[in-house]
Amino acid sequence: MFCKAAVLSALLSAASAGTILWDGRFNDLTSSADLEKWSFSNPVGPYQYYIHGTGSIDEYVNLDSTYKNPADTGSKQGVKITIDETSKWNGQTMLRTELIPQTSAAINKGKVYYHFSIKTAAENVPTATNEHQIAFFESHFTELKYGASGSSNTNLQWHVGGVSKWDVELVADEWHNVAYEIDFDAGSVTFWHSTGSNALTKTAGPFTASTSSNGADWHLGVLRLPGSNDGTGAEDWFFSGVYVESGELTTSVDSPGGSGDSSETVASSTAVAATSTAVVVASSTAVATSSTAVIVASSTAVAVVETPAASSVAASTEVPVASSTAASVEVPVASSSVVASSAPVASSAVVPSSTSVATPTASAGAGSNAVLPEEFTIKEFIAWLKAKQGKN
């Protein structure tokens, strides 16, 4: 059964999210061995895997649910990327383990956002006396760095064209959430950052940059340069919530779409944002005979209606919106089995707009004090949403 808080939280997240162009969250991979199915002659999966040492893949790349940011339910697992003395690729002296996006999507055009979270642990700590290049483009117009050659630097740093624009102490087991805002057309980059479960905030930029990418030269992973005081042993770096989006920046660390682990899931932002047709609301558990909240979204209106369920079902509900006033909505209800499609099935029930509505206390400019009642109209929800976001 959908509670109002869960539905509204999911709707707010979806309403503020962009469109995922490339999804690198590892949700469809059983283990890191799946990465080895990729080759230049067989370009399958979300990543190209060819920059690594001579050992087996589990020496350099491993997946697990404990490797992700716990605040990100949109990812079912994260990745641990390891470098050691064997991580020398193609005869180079650098230590490197890197993954490259495998996609034909336009991740190198217009304004896009490269998302990821990163941390280290108390074990296999990176050496601070070697320069590390992290999550970088081939031309290094934007990247993270750690360490320094010839000296010690324990800060995680954001660089633009080789110049540090931001840094913070890298502490074991603290997640740093990052979005590179890259305007390939305008030639600028901006840095968004937060820690833990906190929402991203604009931290530095925009800065002019020589934004250049062929769409297959962003390196998720670590390259460590040799130095005069090289550390020994393995180093582990953890990444979570990796994806590229366009449109509106998703500032929530809880990445769009969901991993399927939650019993209550509201449709992915890639399908829901600013549509004028319908939003699919699905539950992976059976809904007992009672009323259940259904979200209706359009380009101009949002509403919640109470819809009686005929029996214990997990319903995938398609809700066409008749007009901006939502005079009525038609709710086809699925059969007793779990349905993952938005196609109308079984019977339908028409819910008139005469559902009782309480008057909200929200008003433009109310900010975080805005209150939404249990039942509300489309216009009242829009007013409340704008008030929460501080918009007139």
If you had to describe this structure to a student in words, what would you say it looks like?
It comes from Neocucurbitaria cava. The chain is mainly beta. The chain has 2 domains: 18-246, Sandwich (Jelly Rolls); 264-355, no CATH class. The chain has helices spanning 4-15, 269-272, 378-388, and strands spanning 19-23, 47-51, 61-64, 78-83, 95-101, 111-119, 132-137, 142-146, 155-160, 163-169, 176-183, 188-195, 201-208, 218-224, 235-246, 264-266, 281-283, 291-297, 302-308, 328-332, 348-352. Strand 8 and strand 9 (155-160) form a beta hairpin. Residues 259-367 have low confidence and may be disordered.
Features:
21 strands, Jelly Rolls, Glycoside hydrolase 131 catalytic N-terminal domain-containing protein, eight-stranded antiparallel beta sheet, GH131_N, mainly beta, 392 residues, seven-stranded antiparallel beta sheet, 2 domains, 34% strand
Using the CA coordinates, give the radius of gyration.
Answer: 23 Å
- Helix amount: under 10%
What number is the mean pLDDT? 76
Secondary structural class: mainly beta
Helix and strand element order: HEEEEEEEEEEEEEEEEHEEEEEH
What CATH first level of the largest domain would be assigned? Mainly Beta
CATH topology of the largest domain: Jelly Rolls
User: How many strands?
Assistant: 21
Distance between the termini: 33 Å
- Architecture per CATH nomenclature, i.e. the level-2 architecture of the largest domain: Sandwich
Integer tally of domains: 2
